């Protein structure tokens, strides 16, 4: 029986203006949830509610807020298998990956529960006597958070956990096609004792969300915007926030390169390319885009890569598979468009292309009638190709070759994204030269482009984001604002840069 889901604002269910049907992409005839969609007015109202609730939540001592975060972690841990199975059911993510995604919420909570006791400011020396200087971290107010559905619970936790810990209220708009997973996560968070209105969940389509966000920014009820999604939409969100002099935390798409040096361990590189290119059916922002392989090992790598992919299990995400279906019909439609970018100079080295059907089979496939597509390796990619320059959200990986490391770095940076990157080498000099030259916010050496740990900064540059970072202590700068205070107890007005005592040196002194 499918779930009935609506927005929750201030602890109360909100009226819906429309309906969205969330389907199981592995069995598209199976309804997971019927989702009541809110309009722009409801989104704006949620931000007003959050603003009112935030005042009291900010007065709760930060260590106590940290204990709430600890409770969230324990609740998620206790419900991990159920939440992971819901993620698998709703977006087709293989269960092992879904369980790892849920574990990431727990890891994030485990990290931040202690930050409630470490929201440190500083005592700063003054240039004048009888005067003290201090700095404090203050909550920003209300954060409006909009997240994608490829990581329907882990990525939202990167926003929600630190935002709540720092004393902010949140209005969260998850992806409609992952509504059931989001609603379950919301229930776990509120069960930890969050006061009504501190965390609100609003289900809405893109247009309603954008219009509602514009209303809220105009009313002054949103003080931070968090967005995870495409670079195209991220630009619009960033522009909207900027017009209202508010900052946005943008985590956008990627065209993530993997460089294979001639001294690389090829079997290890293949393992990394397989996971980062085709895990989650290539639908991660950190998924491998292009393998840039040295010309001396090109043929050996491609042969191994194609063989490994053809042996990999694709099918029912409840089983032990590399990849399941695409997330939703709209992503399947978009992926089919990417396949039209194949050119005569390209060579598909992985077999069949397109949707897996009886007429277009894949050996060992056990997925049934879902949104399943053949994973594709395309050799012969050139720097001017759309397949080289643009993000392809789905199970397709390009391969090109290079002669020198400088050339490889130039190729890796050429698309203009800057999220994740990888190099396979046994030479430390190559690893550090690559790190120095690559524009990506994240670099892996002898590891895949995917797989962030919860206590490292996560984020990208260029088309991949605006330089903001999530995870670890670095995200605290997204959800707090620094306040400085000076306290003069001299009993007189001391003017900075004017009433400063100076000790005169004898700069003409020379040793005899």
From TrEMBL:
Enzyme Commission no: 1.2.1.3
Domain of life of the source: Bacteria
UniProt keyword annotations, A-Z: NAD, Oxidoreductase
UniProt-listed SUPFAM superfamilies: ALDH-like
Pfam families cross-referenced by the UniProt entry: Aldedh
GO molecular function terms attached to this record: aldehyde dehydrogenase (NAD+) activity
Subunit structure, interactors included: Homotetramer.
UniProt record similarity statement: Belongs to the aldehyde dehydrogenase family.
Protein name per Swiss-Prot or TrEMBL: aldehyde dehydrogenase (NAD(+))
Source organism per UniProt: Nonomuraea longispora
Lineage start: Bacteria, Bacillati, Actinomycetota, Actinomycetes, Streptosporangiales
């Amino acid at each position: 029986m499918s779930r009935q889901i609506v927005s929750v604002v201030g602890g109360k269910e909100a009226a819906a203006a429309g309906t969205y049907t969330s389907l199981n992409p592995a069995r598209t005839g199976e309804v997971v949830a019927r989702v009541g969609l809110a309009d722009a007015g409801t989104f704006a109202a949620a931000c007003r509610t959050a603003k009112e609730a935030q005042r009291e939540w900010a007065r709760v001592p930060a260590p106590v807020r940290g204990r709430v975060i600890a409770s969230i972690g324990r609740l998620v841990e206790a419900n991990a298998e159920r939440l992971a199975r819901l993620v698998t059911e709703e977006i087709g993510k293989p269960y092992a990956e879904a369980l790892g995604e849920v574990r990431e919420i727990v890891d994030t909570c485990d990290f931040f529960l202690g930050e409630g006791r470490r929201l440190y400011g500083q005592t700063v020396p003054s240039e004048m006597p009888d005067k003290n200087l201090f700095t404090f971290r203050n909550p920003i107010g209300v954060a409006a958070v909009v997240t994608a559905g490829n990581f329907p619970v882990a990525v939202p936790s990167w926003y929600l956990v630190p935002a709540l810990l720092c004393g902010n209220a949140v209005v969260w708009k998850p992806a409609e096609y992952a509504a059931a997973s989001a609603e379950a996560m919301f229930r776990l968070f509120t069960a930890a004792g969050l006061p009504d209105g501190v965390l609100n969940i609003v289900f809405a389509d893109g247009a309603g969300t954008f219009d509602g966000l514009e209303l809220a920014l105009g009313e002054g009820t949103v003080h931070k915007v968090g967005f995870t999604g495409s670079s195209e939409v991220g630009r619009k969100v960033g522009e909207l926030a900027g017009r209202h002099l508010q900052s946005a935390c943008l985590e956008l798409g990627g065209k993530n390169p993997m460089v294979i040096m001639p001294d690389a361990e090829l079997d290890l590189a293949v393992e990394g390319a397989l996971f980062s290119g085709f895990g989650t059916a290539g639908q991660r922002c950190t998924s491998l885009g292009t393998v840039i392989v040295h010309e001396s090992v090109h043929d050996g790598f491609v042969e191994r890569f194609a063989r490994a992919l053809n042996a990999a299990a694709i099918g029912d995400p409840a089983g032990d598979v590399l990849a399941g279906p695409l997330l939703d019909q709209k992503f399947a439609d978009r992926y089919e468009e990417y396949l039209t970018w194949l050119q005569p100079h390209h060579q598909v080295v992985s077999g069949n292309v397109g949707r897996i059907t009886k007429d277009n089979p894949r050996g060992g496939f056990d997925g049934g009638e879902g949104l399943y597509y053949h994973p594709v390796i395309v050799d012969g990619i050139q720097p001017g190709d759309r397949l080289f320059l643009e993000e392809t959200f789905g199970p397709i990986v390009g391969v090109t070759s290079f002669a020198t490391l400088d050339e490889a770095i130039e190729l890796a940076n050429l698309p203009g994204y800057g999220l994740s990157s990888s190099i396979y080498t046994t030479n430390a000099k190559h690893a550090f030269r690559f790190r120095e030259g690559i524009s990506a916010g994240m670099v892996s050496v002898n590891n895949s482009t995917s797989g962030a740990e919860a206590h490292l900064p996560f984020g990208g540059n260029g088309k991949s984001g605006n330089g903001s970072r999530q995870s670890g202590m670095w995200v605290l700068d997204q959800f707090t604002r620094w306040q400085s205070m000076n306290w003069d107890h001299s009993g007189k007005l001391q003017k900075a840069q004017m009433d400063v005592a100076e000790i005169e040196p004898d700069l003409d002194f020379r040793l005899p």
